[in-house]
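Fill in residues.
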């Protein structure tokens, strides 16, 4: 049974009275309509002053009425039945979450001030359409728990945090332009090789590779060119069963400070320095 948004539901969900653009009038700018069995939000087209909207846990398949909300700063639409996160450009949107829908691609996302985008728990296989010219403020991208097979298509130079855990990745590729990336989560994939990390990823400090399939400790040498890498999580990979695993990691990556849950001590570093062959 379709459940459209009504004026009564709007009145229940509205809050936060603020001045509008001309400073002479006031309007409610926050709307919370979580878990109301909604199938239609057409009525929102009239509420152009909204800045914060939560329509999570409904049955929505279409968010196009939100395109009229040109003052929108924050949007949460988790747990609906959306097949796309595409919307007409919203000039002030900074935070958007479309987690746990049925989204199959990353096309049509083009908000110039968007800083944080959450697409976890969807059905995305390949990342396409993320234009760095149109997403030039994006710093955090959450893609955990999809079906992503490749890291190609993530050419977003301003990105600082990238979450790709619980996907279907077998290697890392196409991330050379992420020069501002500081945090990369790749837990619970099928990665066997550490090729694809390059010195151009000059800001990367934290790398989580837990629960992958890296078997050869020699692969760690491919992380040597990451100048700021300080924390590496490798537990639950086959290579961690080697007896000299912790020492070998420090031999290969001299500037590493933490491996898995434990920090290196000065004596660990001294031993690794003795073993490490001269460059």
């Amino acid at each position: 049974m379709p459940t459209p948004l009504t004026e009564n539901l709007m009145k229940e969900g509205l809050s936060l009275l603020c001045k509008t653009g001309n400073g002479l009038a006031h309007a409610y700018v926050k709307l919370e309509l979580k878990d109301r069995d909604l199938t239609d939000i057409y009525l929102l087209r009239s509420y152009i002053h909204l800045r914060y909207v939560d329509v999570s846990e409904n049955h929505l398949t279409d968010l196009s009425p939100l395109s009229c909300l040109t003052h929108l700063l924050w949007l949460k639409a988790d747990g609906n039945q959306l097949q796309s996160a595409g919307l007409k450009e919203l000039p002030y949107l900074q935070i958007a979450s479309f987690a746990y829908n049925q989204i199959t691609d990353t096309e049509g996302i083009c908000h110039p001030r968007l800083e944080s985008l959450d697409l976890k728990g969807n059905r995305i296989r390949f990342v396409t359409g993320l234009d760095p010219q149109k997403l030039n403020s994006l710093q955090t991208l959450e893609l955990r728990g999809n079906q992503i097979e490749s890291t190609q298509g993530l050419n977003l130079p301003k990105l600082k945090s990238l979450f790709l855990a619980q996907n279907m990745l077998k290697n890392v590729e196409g991330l050379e332009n992420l020069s501002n990336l500081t945090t990369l989560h790749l837990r619970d994939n099928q990665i066997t090789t550490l090729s694809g990390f390059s010195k151009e990823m000059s800001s990367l400090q934290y790398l989580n590779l837990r629960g992958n399939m890296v078997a050869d400790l020699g692969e760690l040498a491919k992380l040597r060119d990451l100048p700021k890498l300080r924390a590496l999580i490798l537990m639950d990979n086959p290579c961690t069963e080697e007896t000299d695993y912790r020492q070998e990691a420090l031999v290969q990556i001299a500037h590493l400070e933490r491996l898995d849950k434990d920090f290196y001590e000065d004596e660990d570093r001294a031993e690794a320095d003795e073993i490490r062959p001269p460059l």
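The first helix runs from residue 7 to 13.
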